[in-house]
Write a structure and sequence with these properties.
This protein has about 350 residues and is mostly beta strands. It is about 5% helix and about 55% strand. It has one helix at about 75-80; strands at about 5-10, 25-35, 40-45, 50-55, 60-70, 85-90, 95-100, 115, 120, 125-130, 135-140, 145-150, 155-160, 165-170, 175-180, 185-190, 190-195, 200-205, 210-215, 220, 225-230, 235-240, 245-250, 255-265, 270-285, 290-295, 300-310, 315, 320-325, 330-335, 340-345, 350-355.
Length: about 350
């Protein structure tokens, strides 16, 4: 089926000209496709936002909006003609491929951008909106645009170099990664989320979650399964991890409440704070120069092994001692056998009760 093309020359507030006298040329194309002969949708776009929404009628609907902010109308139309949006079935996939100035790959420099009210805008871009049928797998690859997905039921792989990614109400597994953008998600089944320098904020995830970033923070709320979190210089926060927690940070703090299952936490120079609940399989927590604090639920029964090189050791619960020295304490709480091994080089270790 052919694209249905509509040219729009209206200038909106959000699409103000790059320079005085410039116009904004907008050209929209639409396409509706029956899902036959392909099992996935792939979108490749170097610049411009991609929006994913559920289809209202079981068919695939694609809308491509070209926005050009270059000179007068004639010049903008010329640039728009050089931007090609191709769509079709290739090897069992439905591929939407945006090519700018007849090149499949571009590098974006300062000459391609302009500033309005402190915000950077590309001089030309294509915004893709896809209404996705139930269960259809989706892959999106972006260079400088944001990706937003809301209510898509099939598996998703979303990748952006410098844009943000936002996912809501996903019906299947999600893999989302950005190099310098933030990733936020709400209502996931299971997911793998990563960013190099951006923050990760995840709310309400039903299945296992793996989240990693180099220099950003990770915040997880409403988890119903296990968490695997890692950051080089950012903080890690989780309000619950009912089926296990693995967390690593080099210079950030780790704070997790309502943690059960198998727990392994490590930090080089940050503090570690854990609230633990039954059922517990085992706990290992270590830090080089930070402090370790445990808050045990009243039902927790465990065997403690605390060691520090130059810090202090404090246990604020009744404990049956096995060995005590200036640098180590071992013993059991409530006669438990679940191992809890806490080691720090130069930080303090504190074990308290109350179940916060």
């Amino acid at each position: 089926m052919r694209w249905r093309v509509l040219a729009l020359a209206a200038v909106l507030v959000a699409d103000r000209p790059a320079l005085a006298g410039d116009e904004v040329w907008r050209e929209q194309s639409q396409k509706t496709v029956e899902v036959r002969g392909f099992s996935s949708l792939e979108i490749d776009n170097a610049r411009g936002r991609v929006d994913l929404l559920p289809s209202p009628d079981g068919r695939l609907h694609i809308t491509a909006l070209k926005i050009v902010r270059v000179g007068r109308r004639e010049r903008a139309q010329e640039v728009a003609r050089g931007i090609v949006v191709e769509a079709g079935i290739r090897g069992g996939r439905y591929l939407v491929d945006v090519r700018y100035q007849q090149r499949r790959r571009i590098r974006i420099g300062l000459s391609d951008l302009f500033t309005v009210d402190g915000r950077m805008f590309p001089r030309y871009e294509v915004r893709i909106a896809a209404e996705v049928p139930p269960g259809l797998a989706v892959v999106v690859r972006e260079t400088s645009g944001d990706i937003r997905s809301d209510g898509v039921s099939g598996p998703q792989v979303l990748r952006s170099t410098s844009g943000d990614i936002e996912v809501r109400s996903a019906g299947d597994r999600v893999e989302a990664s950005s190099t310098s953008g933030d990733v936020s998600a709400d209502g996931l089944r299971q997911a793998r989320v990563s960013s190099v320098s951006g923050d990760l904020v995840i709310r309400q995830v039903a299945g296992p979650l793996r989240a990693s970033t180099s220099s950003g923070d990770i915040t997880v709320t409403g988890a119903e399964d296990s968490l695997a979190l890692s950051s080089v210089s950012g903080d890690l926060h989780a309000d619950r991890a009912p089926r296990g927690l693995r967390a690593e940070s080099s210079s950030g703090e780790v704070v997790a409440r309502a943690v059960s299952g198998m727990v392994r936490v490590g930090s080089s120079s940050g503090d570690v704070t854990l609230g633990l609940r039954e059922p517990l399989i085992g706990v290992e927590a270590s830090t080089s120069s930070g402090e370790i604090r445990l808050d045990l639920d009243p039902a927790v029964r465990c065997a403690l092994d605390l060691r520090t090189s130059s810090g202090s050791l404090e246990v604020g619960l009744p404990m049956e001692m096995r060995s005590v020295s200036r640098r180590s304490v071992t013993g059991t709480i409530r006669g438990g056998r679940t191992p809890m091994v806490l080691h720090t080089t130069s930080g303090d270790i504190t074990v308290m009760g109350g179940g916060r």
